[in-house]
Structures are given as C-alpha cells and as structure tokens.
User: What shape does this take?
Amino acid sequence: MMKLDIQMFAVPQHKVSKTRKRKRRSHNAMDLPGTTKCKNCGEVIKPHRVCPKCGSYKGETVVEPKEAE
Assistant: This one.
C-alpha cells in the first residue's frame, strides 16, 4: 500500500522573503496621537476635550480648574 503524506495544517508553498514580509508590515506602525494647544493657556491637550490646566473648552471657561495642593 502507498502511504499518503497529508498535512492537516497550513503550510507555505514558498519562503516569504524579508522584503515581502516588511512590505506587508509597513502599515502596522503606531501613529502619534493628535494634539492641539489650548486657546487660553497654550497647554498641549487632546482635541475636543476640556483643558485640565485652565478648565476651558472652545475659549470658554466650562469647569473651574483644580488648585495645586
């Protein structure tokens, strides 16, 4: 009888070169988070959020800033 060599999992037909592998992974790099400056105090903050330093949002004071203890 002839014995068949059947594999039960995925096996690549050819070796994936370093260049091909790196091209595929070129889009996986992490991006820097978007930041803006507060209009009142100039603090670097995330967009569309209240400034933790001065408590303003879109140029208006919305929340009273916390005092440093």
